[in-house]
Amino acid sequence: MSPQTAVVSARNLRKVYDDFVAVDGISFDVAPGESFGLLGPNGAGKSTTMRMIGGVSQRTSGELNIMGLDPEQHGPQVRAHLGVVPQQDNLDEELKVRDNLIIYGRYFGLPLSYLRPKADELLEFAQLTEKASAKVDSLSGGMKRRLTIARSLVNDPKILLLDEPTTGLDPQARHILWDRLFRLKEAGTTLILTTHYMDEAEQLCDRLVVVDKGTIMAEGSPASLIREYSTREVLELRFGSERNATVGAELTGVGERIETLPDRVLIYANDGEAALEQVSARGLRPLTSLVRRSSLEDVFLRLTGRSLVD
């Protein structure tokens, strides 16, 4: 993909606060209609990157183009095409649900003749029609998140920025939200999201960059990253906190690679069950064992030497 065809293009993007480098020279392109993710732990520079894309934080150096425009030079034009879902819901708790959409739309100068039917359409999309007249502070966390997304769509944005969209939600609420985002993607909206949830990145992203300490560690589709940096399966063993640290030497030669974490030992192998048989044949008896498919968590561990949730 060339920068000319990309809806978002960053080159050597850098953001420094005093002596702290939050984003350290990252480059990426996002294609129209793509779901693009920034995956990394808290403090990796993901939200800072989103604020620069959204034009609310000035970059220290580098180039950034949104639909061919520099957000620092053409902030209002860029923001007219963006929908922003911040990390924390910033709804007006005192207003009714439907009024949150209409009043937000007025900030864009949109007429009421457009906003009234648009608000009803967005409430239906967010599965909040029955809550239209309810006060926002009566909604559950998942409902507030869906309302925040509905509000971000009031100006029919071409690009939707989602910063940690499901943090703090229970599994059911997360899945409902994922379904709404799938529908937007199917309709051609470009999604750019940050997350530290590996399952969310695998579910939602066509392509992603793994970010750590302000730099890009790897880029690709979830499946291609797992193929490149991990094995097909992982055997998780728990020997107890004291034994985990010392058992590694006795496992040498089992699988392709071994990672020792404080609470478990990971053996990377294309056949996890065969690896477990080898462990048993050596007379080792873990307290628990689990064979699973490799995930983006394993990619991050391979690239950085630590877990995403550290």
Automatic annotation (TrEMBL):
Pfam families: ABC_tran
Location relative to the cell: Cell membrane
Xref: SUPFAM superfamilies: P-loop containing nucleoside triphosphate hydrolases
Gene Ontology process terms (BP): response to antibiotic
Entry GO MF terms: ATP binding; ATP hydrolysis activity
Xref: InterPro entries: AAA+_ATPase, ABC_transporter-like_ATP-bd, ABC_transporter-like_CS, ABC_transporter_ATP-binding, P-loop_NTPase
Family of the protein in this entry: Belongs to the ABC transporter superfamily.
Protein name: ABC transporter
Organism: Psychromicrobium lacuslunae
Upper lineage: Bacteria, Bacillati, Actinomycetota, Actinomycetes, Micrococcales
